[in-house]
Design brief:
Layout: E1 6-12, H1 16-22, H2 38-49, E2 55-58, H3 66-77, E3 81-84, H4 98-116, E4 122-123, H5 132-140, E5 145-146, H6 153-168, E6 190-193, E7 196-200, E8 208-209, E9 214-215, E10 220-221, H7 224-245, E11 249-255, H8 281-296, E12 300-301, H9 304-311
Helix pairs in contact: 7-8
The protein binds zinc ion (ZN).
Length: 317
Amino acid sequence: MSLPPVASITVDLDSAYQYRHIHGLPQVGRGDDTPLTLGVERLLDLFAAHAIPATLFVVGADSQRPAHRALLERAHARGHELANHTFHHRYDLRSRPRAERAADITAGELLISEITGSSPLGFRTPGYNIDEALLADLSERGYLYDSSVLPAPPYWLAKAAVMSWRSVTGSPSGSSTTPARNLLSPLEAYRADPSALWREDPAGSAMWQVPMCVIPGARVPVIGTSLHLLGAKGFDAAMPALARAYPRLLQIAFHAIDFVDSTDPGLEDLVARQPDLAVPWETKRSLYDRVFQAIRRRYRFSTLADAVRSLGPPRRA
Ligand SMILES: [Zn+2]
């Protein structure tokens, strides 16, 4: 009997600081951060209850406080993967000079290797904003995979509209538009052509790309925030189509903010901009319980690095 296909739950550990930045809100200092303390505690408990080895994409600059770091140490000790979400979480990282990109990636790697004893195997760029230059940086460094592509035209159009509106109204967003051609990528994990990352590498030897999950056809992203719109019944209904689109590897991406709500401390100023914060944690938790149970009926859970390894080793020239 063959093993079931693999599912990976990934969580980007973006702090409240990052959300204030993207929404252009004033910062309130960089103390202990509720998504990175309470949020990470809750997700570790939830993953323990479901026996899920997850992948946490760590932002270096947000992870230096002792309380944040202690939780990352706990995550590592429990078998979760720590992967690189850069040090500074710059949405325009791909457009920065090469040396600056390298410094940011290196600083993120160092912080993770201090905790785990080894360099991270996976990378996710802020804001799904990847291009071939950034991918080449990662490939040279020997990364096993990148997971940054969001092949969702509705999301891309909405983001482009908000960003052009904000620049017209004189309050430019802290975000940065992603290359439109990435929308053409395959849905499931693939080896990305180094000269055109949205298509398969003809030589079949390049680094893996693991795109964000979307519902095939409509290409609506299936990520933590959109799960609240889909609901448990909607997810169950989408599951057969997801299983067909992701026969080998299903990856669902969350953010740390998906594990907190507006009654948790220090998030009052964000509620108007992040409506999903109004959903109580208990409601979210029972939704995630249902979603993880539905996934487990068809898949086995593993970290994203282990999932990608199960697809085949990268064959480097
Ligand atoms: Zn992020």
